Amino acid sequence: MDQVSDVLWMLAGPQGGGINSAAEAFAKALSRGGYRIFTGIEYHSNIMGEHSYYMVRISDKQKRNLSERVHVLVSLDEESILGNHHNEWPSHHGHLKEMVPGGVVIYDGALKMDLSGKRQDLKYIPVPFDDILRKVLVEAGRGAEFNSLRVMTNSVAGGASAAALGLDLGIYMESFRGGTGRRAALAELNGQAAKGGYDFVMEALGGAPAFNLVKVDRPAKAPLLLRGVHACALAKLKAGLGFQSYYPISPATDENVYLEANARAQDLVVVQVEDEVSAINMAVGAAHGGKRSSTSTSGPGLSLMCEGFGFASLTEAPGPVLFLWSRGGPSTGLPTRSEQSDLTFALQPGHGDFGHIVVAPGDIQDTVEDSYESFNWADRYQMPVIVMLDKKIQSGYQTVDDLGFDKLPPIDRGKLFEPNGDYLRYKLTDDGLSPRAIPGQEGGIFWVTTDEHDQRGHITEAADNRIAQMNKRMGKLDLAAREIPAARKITKYGPADAEITIVGWGTTKGSISDAIDVINAEGGPKMNFLQVRLMRPFPVAEVTAELTKAKTTILVEENYNGQLGDLIRSQTGITVDKRVVKFDGRPFSEEELIDGIKTALSSSETRIPVSHLLP
Amino acid sequence: MVVSQTYQLKDYKTDTHNTWCPGCGDFGILTSIQMALAEIGVPPHKVAVVSGIGCSGKAPHYLNAYGFHTLHGRSIPSATGMKLSNPEMTVIAVGGDGDGFGIGCGYFVNAGRRNVDFTYLVFDNEVYGLTKGQGSPTMKKGMKAKGMAEAAVQDNINPLALAISSGYTFVGRGYALNPKATAQLIAQAVSHKGTSFIDIAQTCPVYNDLHTKEYYTDMVEGQPRMYWLENTDYDAVVHDPTNAGEVVEKKLQAIGKAYETGRMPLGCYYKVDVPTFEEQIAEGRPNGMDSILNPNLWNRDISKLEAVLR
Ligand SMILES: Cc1ncc(C[n+]2csc(CCOP(=O)(O)OP(=O)(O)O)c2C)c(N)n1
Ligand code: SF4
Ligand SMILES: [Mg+2]
């Protein structure tokens, strides 16, 4: 049997049934065992019962996206296999069509399903999860605890999956090790349950696994297995975050709650407030108050935050840094799905002419760097910053060896007040930056107002002052454009001499990088990737230079019409040739993206909408 | 209360151009705030005054203290952020009745749930002054002040009763044209640990022709309309905050006072001493309250957080 070095394992079933913890335990075991992991989850805005599925891509070299090549599907219900075909408008059609030939469908043996007429190139293995666990418990003399220990059927499923994939069961068993007393006893039971599942599937497969997953070495130090949430939150802690306010909203909640859970140990203040208007105003108050301050939300929350955002910018507050975790819009939209449709809005979240910085990290490493550095920018340029993230990076786990905190630039709190006579908070200076006092400092008393104001911070409507203060505030954007290093503005990936340049932003970075690797390895046409990372101030010169080098430019975005394409045109005058767009609320799979790029090259259409989720 | 030797009224004044109308009740409230600060003796640079938008919202510009003239209705969130970011500051939020009970009412209610240590003063003129005299949420149904197109169809809220039911731990009422006594009340409120609220009846000679200086100083059934609770046997204080019965009893008593018709009680309606938000979140921290004071937090050790992700 051929060795496989890149497999997709999927666990699917009703929400609220422990799918996440089961899949994450499985992924962690493999990550510790030396495999590289990339995960994604799709779920409904619902707590119990709706269909959800967790994808774990397992490989020997790091993948940066998900594929549609499922090797093993573990299904906890009928719907995951057949779709919700009883519904008038089925929200999905089952996962069989994503399976590779020879793929294994492991499902709960208690389900009675008619699979005749379904794909015959797959192996369907009903596994009696409950019976296997019950037997293990009875043998251990704990049969009476079946109901309370029923989550251990997850371990049965994990063991069953190992058998199908050709994964060394020991790697999976390793995850149960450790602990003493009661915990050790539970670990032992989990191990037995896994072995039960493993043996059952191995026997059903006639003694040999369905796939021969490549063997990898267990690393001396386990890598990190984390989500964008963790990368972002840890970077914020490293940046000296002192205050965070939030109102719960998907997909921003996890970052907020993670920080809240660690607030006491990390000397952080986190406040859950009554709405996003309060959240932003509290964060602005805290920024003026002297602490590094932040708030995290999603599109609907940003809609409410506009007024407060303008307040921060006009009053030259050193922040807050607003973390925008996007989901499918508009309005309440697709609360638990991913989309890149907030870019245009994030560039102008409020009325009037005002300055702010917008940065869109593309992956975990970018997230660490941008989440951290945004606080330096907020302090240095005395303006709010938006860091654009989304549901995809929020929820997807990835193996990372090191977050690189030791390579980050030093803390920069910008120009600070030193007592020297008459203090002017909005003093007109050559670079537009005025030294800022922190409330409590003697001699530093200042005023801020959301009205136009003079250098002292008092209201004035005088025309000459207005012009001077507008020039000062807007001029800081030019300063930021000059000072922010090129490496933070754009990234290039792939062969420099390629004639085709794919343009994208945000979390499609990994998808595009992987897709062009595949296309280039297939023999082309040769293409490279331009990631636009700094959205405001826009890197006009850098983007112009890169786009004019390419013969053909193809935009890839997860929104309806290509918002970055519009931005590039307005900023550089360049019209990107083709736009590959996806707006079904699910991130591009590798196959969708490759399809989209190839169609863009062959078709005369300029806009190519893609979705493989149509029936 | 001890009168401070260190600071005088003038230390809290600025020479900023004042744009209030002549005779506006806001002048009286401004003076009472300055008197209260001088009385407490807090240095001007340790005070932050946070306001909303309205005529009243301009007050910080006339006070020598860190001044934050924020957005319409948002003074409370901003003041909360200021205090939690910089707990050494004495924070006073100020604003109009429209600001506090109309556009900002959600924040008014939710601030009561938190008990962050700051004082909120509402300049209550029953109208939207700066937008030229529309009725505000404290304008009674059926009343028509001169800037209103017709008599109010919507009824008024009762700020004092709302504050008490929202959880404010110090609730009182003052009067703009009695700055001395109101200053005493403000000083008590600022010294109170927790969120304190004072609704200050404010004359607006331009738009409120109903509740004028004459109205407030009128006689009602042979007695002055306004009277101070401290001159009666009214006891506003919860003496045993752990006694739920007493808390409810004192709240009901205060709400009863808030709905008193005819005469108008001034002074402290309700006071209870319970832990502040800051004290509660400081609990269980390695450095206690100090950890909330420290703004320089970039030398954190996150190795434990990383370890659980491996
Ligand atoms: C979002 C928003 N809506 C409306 C306004 C216009 N506005 C300015 S002041 C004001 C009312 C002020 O009334 P009040 O809060 O009672 O203060 P006063 O002027 O009476 O002191 C309004 C509606 C605004 N500034 N912001
Ligand atoms: S309109 Fe009324 S409240 Fe506003 S400044 Fe004039 S008198 Fe004062
Ligand atoms: Mg008013």
Could you describe the 3D structure shown?
- With 615 residues, chain A is of the alpha/beta class.
- Chain A folds into 3 domains: 3-213, Pyruvate-ferredoxin Oxidoreductase, domain 3 (3-Layer(aba) Sandwich), CATH 3.40.920; 225-407, Rossmann fold, CATH 3.40.50.970; 488-609, Rossmann fold.
- Chain A has 19 helices and 24 strands.
- In chain A, the strands form 5 sheets. A 7-stranded mixed sheet of chain A has the order 11-10-12-13-15-14-21, sandwiched between helices.
- The mean pLDDT of chain A is 96.
- Chain B has a single domain, classed as 3-Layer(aba) Sandwich (Rossmann fold), CATH 3.40.50.
- Chain B has helices at 26-40, 75-85, 97-103, 105-114, 159-166, 179-191, 213-217, 244-258, 277-282, 288-293, 303-307, and strands spanning 47-51, 66-69, 90-96, 119-124, 127-128, 134-135, 170-175, 196-201, 219-220, 223-224, 226-228, 264-271.
- In chain B, strands 2-1-3-4-8-7-12-11 form an 8-stranded mixed sheet, with helices on both faces. Chain B has a two-stranded antiparallel ribbon with strand order 5-6. Chain B has a two-stranded antiparallel sheet with strand order 9-10.
- In chain B, strand 5 (127-128) and strand 6 (134-135) form a beta hairpin.
- Chain B is globular, with a radius of gyration of 20 Å.
- At the A-B interface, strand 9, helix 7, strand 10, helix 9 and helix 10 of A face strand 2, helix 2, helix 4 and helix 11 of B.
- The complex binds thiamine diphosphate, iron/sulfur cluster and magnesium ion.
